[in-house]
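Lab notebook, bench 4. Still working through the backlog of constructs that have no structural model yet. Next entry is a single chain of 82 residues. Request: give me the structure tokens for it.
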Amino acid sequence: MADFENQLKALESVVQRLEQGDLSLEESVQLFEEGIKLSDACKKELEAAEGKIQLLVDRGKSGMKVVDFDIKENAAASEDEG
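Model written out:
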């Protein structure tokens, strides 16, 4: 989860720099591209966490069980859906 927090902080920094409006067009485009990558990474982390929580809730209905959750497998399934 530390990766998510670091990526989110980096994304917030990118947004702040873009909002200041004192960058060249080239710098703005590069920062925007970086922001998109960070946003996608955060989204994948959130989807993985949501999937894990859903598994726990579903399992909890018939007794609480902890199950392994493969983040890469979930990310691949999410890409197939989208």
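Notes after review: DSSP finds three helices and no strands in the chain. Residues 25-60 form the longest helix (36 residues). Flag for follow-up if needed.
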